[in-house]
Each structure stands twice: as C-alpha cells, then as structure tokens.
Amino acid sequence: MFTVNKQGDAGTVTAPNVVVPFYLYAALSFLVATFLLCASPVSPGDHYFSPHTLAITHVMALGWGTMIILGASHQLVPVLVEGKLYSHKLAHLTFCCAAVGIPLLVYAFYTFNMGWPAKTGAILINTAVALFLVNILCSRAKQDNVHVVFVVTATCWLFTTTFAGLLLVFNFTQPLLQEDALHYLPLHAHLGIAGWFLLLVTGVGSRLIPMFLVSKYTRPGLLWWIYGLVNGGLAGFVLLFLYLHRPVVYFLPLASILAAIILLIRYCYNCYKERIRRRVNKQVKLSLLSVSMMLIPLALLVVVTVLLLVTTENTRLVMVYGFSIFFGWLTAIILGMTFETLPFIIWNNVYHIQAGRGGTPSPQDLFSNKLFNGTALSYLLGFLLFTGGMLVQQGGMIRLGAALLLVCAFLYNLNTFRVAFHKPG
Amino acid sequence: MMVKTNFDLKCTIALALLQEVMDPELGLNVVDLGLIYALNFDEVHRRLETVMTLSTRHCPMGASIVDSVKAQLQTHFPGYGVEVTLTFDPPWSYERISEEGRKFLNA
C-alpha cells in the first residue's frame, strides 16, 4: 500500500523572478565578453596577465559561468535537497551584490584601476557568494545525497576562490601576501576552475543527465570516487603550490583530476548507453559534447606542465588553456543547458494556471530551433577558429573566430530573451 | 502498469482521460509514465481520490502536473469532489513505464 503525503511535495518551486534575472545577466555578460574579444583582439604574443585578458576572463568566469550557475542552482537545489530553497530574499540579495560587483571588478581590470572599483567589486562579489552559501547550507536536506555534497563543497571552493581574489586585489595597493598577484594567479584560477566549476557541473550534471536521458544508470559510488579525486587533487595542488612550488610535483594533482574526468566521461557514457529515451535532443547533445571537451584543457595543461619542466612558461599555451575552459567546456554546457532548463521555468510560470485545459505549447516550443542551431554552429566554428588561430599564431583566424563567437552570443541572447519574456499566444 | 481501484469501470474512464495529461519534459502522458497509483471512488460522498507520484521529489514541474490531473478529473467527473494525494512510497521507478510508454520513448 502507499504512504501518502497530504501536504504534497509539488508546490515548492523557486519563483521565476529569483532565477530568471541570473540567466539574463549571464546572457548579457556573454555578449559583453565576446564584444570585448572582438574590440580588443588577442594577439598571439599577448601575456595572460594583461588588463584586457583579465577583464574578459572575469566577465566569462563571473558574469557568464557563475551567474548562470547561481541562477540554475536556486532552481535545482530544491530538487537535489528534496525541500524548499531556504530564502528568496537571500537569492535576490545574492543577485544584487554580484550584479553590481562584477562590472566594477571588470571595469577595474580593463582600465587597470585597482583602487576603489576593484576593491568594492571584490567585496560585493564575496558578499554575494557568502549569501549564496548560507542559502544553500540552510536549504540542505536532513539526509545528504552525493549531489548535495558536491554543490555545498563547490560553493565552499567558490568562496575560497573569491576570497583569494579579494586578497589579490587588496595586495595591489597594500602588500598582504609574500608574492605578487601573478605568482598566485594559478592558485586563484584553479580553485575556481576545479573547485567551483568542475565540482558543481559534475554534481548537478550527474543528477540532470540521467533525468533528461531517462536513464536507469545510477552509481553514487562512482560519483563519490570523482568527488574524492577532484577534491584530493585540488587540495594537493594548493598544498604543493604553497609549500613546494616545483612543477614536477604538479603531475600528482593533475593525474588525480584527469582520473576524475575520465570517470565522469564514463558515467555520462553509461547514462547515455542505458537510456530509455532513444531520442536525445540537441540541447542535451551539446551538453554531452561539452563533457568530452574537458579533455582539451586537460591535454593543454599536461603540455604546459611538461614545458615548465624543461623551459619557461609558455604564455600562448596558457592563454589557449584558459580559453578552452571558459569559451570551450563551460560555454558549451551552458549553451545546451540554458534551453533545457529556462523554457521549463518560464512554461511553469506562464502556463501553470492553464494546466489540464489543453492547447498549451510544450516548453520546447518556447525557444527558436533555428536560433539554437545558429548559436551552436557559430559557437563550434568560432571556438575552433579562435583556438586554432591561437595555436598557429594566425591573427586572421583569431579575429574571425572572435566575430563568430560574437554572432553566437547575439543569437543566444535573442533566444534567451525570447524565452524569458514569452507571453501566451 | 498497476493502478489500484475500487471501481473498475470508472477507473478505466478516468485513466483514458488522464492519458491527455502530459509530462511536459518527456511529452509522455502520466498514465503511461506510471505516475498514477490509485483511483478510489466514494459513491456515497461523491468523492474521487487519486493517489499519484512524481518521477522526482520536488520536481519543478510537479505542481503543474498535479494540477493538470486534478483539473482533468474535475472537468469530466463534475459531481465529484476530486482530491489528489501525492506519495513517494513506493518511489517511482522506470519499471512503472508502460509498454506503450516505452515504445514512445524508444521511437
């Protein structure tokens, strides 16, 4: 017989006005980042520690990647914890602090004014992350599952990253650290890349991909291994960086992260293989492609680390490495997942009151397939041309790639705003 | 697919009606998805109790699906007070998808 729950567990969806602003902000940030990429083209010989590159990187990492993940997390955390989001007010405050802090920090990098704009921006971003962390911790279920642990740990790493960033910003004007910002940049960057993006995407993706594919495959044990390898690798890297700082030892954490990514690819492949739903839509295909795109930065990281052993740092390869993370893996998964999540959020809001009356479009009808195809095509071509141009030091390819990425961002924005402001016909 | 009932004929009618209520993500109806656990008719008090589940607890589309089920039954059983009760015990599993549902998903 059944155990019934008279109160029901169905009416606990996070309000769209909490989630949608994050999506729109992220979309505009992607447009800004690609515009900056075109307006101040990267030359093959540029160093990654340059004002424009730092500005573009932070638009991508914070404005694009982090904002959309924060938005989606406010929607998905109730599913993961099987409860309500603790506070909508905290979510709004998170958005406000980040929305003001990010442009201040980016402006500071672009003009290399590390005075009040950088400091205020960094403080506001840290406040936003701290508020999000409180919201997530207070939303936690009585019994944690592996996905919740991924999200909580990733958010702790995000706070560590932004706090390290805050110290680096203040270090420009008041020496707080033993070395300069350039020295600590790899630490700051990898705390964010592996600790925040990789853990979060793995934790949420490992829950969503089987749902979208209608797959019977579940292996929490495998996910715990991935969790241990990513965290172990990252913690090892932090300790080795701070106390040993010899390139040869970096292969240990690198091997740990590589093993985690291989296990994640295996997990996704098994989900795909054991799916009940044969038809896989384009959004999920692009997201699955992004998982294998993780191998590009990893391969580059191996090469960069090997070169560090025999010669000095190859800044060109480091630039391609960073580009392949933010414009490659991360962008691919966001482009796919936006149209697998946002249309449902909007549909639920717009058509809920018409439930059961028939004649309503499906969530997939809310976005344009043509715009999505254009976005995906311009993205893949733009990414390949830009990356190839950087590798072979061909300025024309880089500029064409940047232009195609701008087209991609424009089409993505058109489609995202079309969904967000959908009105029933 | 097993749906418990105390009134076979009306249950068949109700299930036919509920085949028009879709899971928006999968495009598959709630009956073939195996979300309906029981349909109990109280002829004395003119009440229809539906016991159902969702594929995921706190599914973002959950409220919409539950309201759709209620609205559909209310429209076609006008004299009845329709009550929809959610349960996650036992939890939904892929084994609950009907043959027709599997054919649809495999197509």
Descriptive keywords:
heterodimer; A: 425 residues; 13 helices; globular; B: 107 residues; GMP Synthetase, Chain A, domain 3; 3 helices
Spell the H/E element sequence of chain B. Answer: EHEEEEHEH
By CATH, the superfamily of chain B comes out as Fe-S cluster assembly (FSCA)
Number of strands of chain B: 6
- How would a textbook summarize the main sheet of chain B? 4 strands, mixed
Q: Which structural class matches the secondary elements of chain A?
A: mainly alpha
End-to-end Cα distance of chain B, whole Å, is 20 Å
Q: Give a count of the beta strands of chain A, DSSP E runs of length 2 or more.
A: 1
Structure description:
The complex is a heterodimer of chains A (425) and B (107). Chain A has 425 residues and is mainly alpha-helical. Chain A contains 13 helices and 1 strand. Chain A has helices at 16-39, 51-81, 88-111, 116-138, 146-171, 181-213, 220-243, 251-273, 282-293, 295-310, 315-351, 369-392, 395-420; one strand at 3-5. In chain A, helix 2 (51-81) runs parallel beside helix 6 (181-213), helix 6 (181-213) runs parallel beside helix 8 (251-273) and helix 10 runs antiparallel to helix 11 (315-351). The radius of gyration of chain A is 21 Å and the shape is globular. The mean pLDDT of chain A is 90. The model of chain B has no long low-confidence stretch (mean pLDDT 89). In chain B, strand 4 and strand 5 (47-52) form a beta hairpin. Chain B is of the alpha/beta class. Chain B is built from 3 helices and 6 strands. In chain B, 41% of the residues are buried. In chain B, strands 1-4-5-6 form a 4-stranded mixed β-sheet, with helices on one face. In chain B, strands 2-3 form a two-stranded antiparallel sheet. Chain B has a single domain, classed as GMP Synthetase, Chain A, domain 3, CATH 3.30.300. Strand 1 of chain A pairs antiparallel with strand 6 (81-89) of chain B.
